[in-house]
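Hi all, posting the design record for the shared folder.

TITLE: backbone redesign
STEP: 1 of 1
STRUCTURE INPUT:
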């Protein structure tokens, strides 16, 4: 009925009921999507062979829970190299250096991987390099670099820097490709040279996105620095895994409590900075 009235009077605005009656009938597409997802879930589940929890799994879970509720307060406020503050400070230092170095090195890679700026064959080569960096997990990079630098915090900085390049380049390239070219054309018509077009037409558009990306990557790197410490790349992870292996749950709780507090502070700070950048 709605279709017939629409054909008789095509210029008349549609009511809500008529618009709903004329909606696209895509039930077959939705059914197909549900069937595909169900098939993928069934296929993925067939590869998982659950044999129950480990014999000491419940004991370890209770130990971690007890450590979180009863952390070693002496370790929390211990200002020596064994204390939580020092370990957290080293973890943050690794994340800061790794993020800054990776963020700076990602700038030339991003411009050279953008086919709007360089020839397409050059962009393809650098995109392949960036993809190769992103493909290898950070833990594997740490195992590679630890053979070069030895087990220390410098290995963590190098690993974080390399891993940051892959992710940050991806975000940088998206920001560069979203640049409004009309502004550049206007500056070109005004007689600006290449440097002035980049300075006044491109940088104001991409710098807020660049800074937001670096802050987001720093949040990730803090957590990664904890994981890298497990393989000897510095940070709080080394002390954490040692305490877990020796079942010193109150010390584990102290380290985890410090990590949680640190992540809350970083999240509050990064959220405020990103909001300020978004609002100009």
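Okay, here is what came back for every position:
SEQUENCE:
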């Amino acid at each position: 009925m709605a279709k017939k009235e629409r054909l008789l009077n095509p210029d008349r605005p549609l009511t809500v009921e008529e618009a709903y009656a004329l909606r696209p009938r895509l039930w077959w597409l939705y059914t197909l999507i549900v069937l595909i997802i169900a098939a993928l879930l069934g296929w993925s589940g067939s590869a998982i062979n659950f044999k129950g929890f480990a014999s000491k799994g419940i004991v370890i879970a209770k130990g971690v829970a007890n450590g979180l509720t009863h952390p070693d307060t002496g370790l929390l406020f211990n200002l020596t190299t064994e204390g939580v503050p020092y370990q957290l400070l080293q973890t943050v230092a690794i994340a800061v250096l790794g993020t800054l170095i990776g963020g700076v090195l990602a700038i030339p890679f991003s411009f050279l991987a953008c086919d709007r700026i360089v020839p397409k064959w050059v962009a393809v080569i650098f995109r392949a390099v960036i993809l190769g960096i992103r493909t290898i997990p950070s833990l594997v990079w740490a195992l590679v670099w630890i053979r070069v630098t030895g087990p220390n915090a410098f290995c963590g900085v190098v690993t974080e820097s390399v891993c940051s390049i892959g992710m940050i380049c991806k975000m940088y390239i998206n920001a560069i490709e979203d640049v409004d070219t009309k502004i550049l054309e206007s500056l070109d018509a005004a007689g600006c040279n290449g440097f002035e077009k980049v300075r006044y037409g491109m940088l104001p558009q991409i710098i807020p996105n660049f800074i937001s990306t670096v802050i987001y990557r720093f949040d990730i790197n803090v957590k990664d620095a904890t994981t890298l410490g497990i393989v000897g790349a510095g940070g709080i992870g080394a002390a954490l895994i040692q305490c877990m292996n020796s079942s010193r749950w109150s010390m584990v709780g102290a380290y985890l409590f410090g990590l949680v507090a640190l992540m809350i502070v970083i999240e509050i700070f990064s959220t405020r900075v990103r909001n300020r950048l978004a609002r100009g």
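COMMENT: The mean pLDDT is 79.
Let me know if anyone wants the other runs.
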